[in-house]
Specification:
This protein is of the alpha+beta class. The chain has 2 domains: about 5-130, Four Helix Bundle (Hemerythrin (Met), subunit A) (Up-down Bundle); about 145-240, Nonspecific Lipid-transfer Protein, Chain A, CATH 3.30.1050.10. It has helices at about 5-20, 35-55, 75-95, 115-130, 140-160, 210-215, 230-240; strands at about 100, 110, 170-175, 180-185, 190-195, 200-205, 225-230. The strands form 2 sheets. Strands 5-4-3-6-7 form a 5-stranded mixed beta sheet. Strands 1-2 form a two-stranded antiparallel sheet. Strand 1 (about 100) and strand 2 (about 110) form a beta hairpin. The longest helix is centred in the middle third of the chain and has 22 residues, at about 75-95. The model has no long low-confidence stretch (mean pLDDT about 95).
Amino acid sequence: MDFATALIEENDAFAQTLRGADEATPVPTCPGWTLRHLLRHVGRGDRWAGQIVRDRLSDYLDPREVRDGKPPDDADGTMDWLRGGVQGLVGAVDGVGADTAVWTFLGPRPAAWWIRRRLHEATVHRADAELALGRDFGLAAELAADGLTEWLERVMVQGGDDRLPLLDGQTLHLHATDGGDWTLRGNGTALALDQGHADAAATVSGDATSLFLAVVRRLPADDPRITIDGDGDIWHAWLDHTPF
């Protein structure tokens, strides 16, 4: 997958979703936020990542210090601002080189890591916007599957909140009916991820978009678009102890 092209396309789709919408519309999947908050979060986040890459930072950057971090007041200017953040990030990665190490919240990573991260940030928040506006949301199966993989890879590094989301020996299998399998196992003080099919104590099945939205809690745990076989408590515990 060409992550830079996908990011530009997803950013444009996000902009189109927001164009003409009431910015005061509440976003139920981001409690306390409106569409304006969502737009500013995504646009400033892209600029934040772009500045980290462009300046080859090795330490955390306070988002409040991001250059041009606030959208303008006019609608057309806001859309240009939103698209400009992504263009700046892609340009920054091209400028410093995709393999140049920069700061990330998971430790030093190649600059290109930020493009994939911001792509899936955009997909999730476009889902937030579409759901807030009462619209259907879907992704190409390959994009949704990679979003799920990217999220799981981060959980492998970050772990859970107050405990690991799988206890020692517990297994969870996620099966995308349109392509993709992920098997997770609790190994005492760590988690293991295998991108393949394996028997597990709990199996959650659905199309890749529905699985992706479920693991990031944009769909209810028992949404009819997904099927749970085996020990449902493992699935619920996984959701309870993984990042929002």
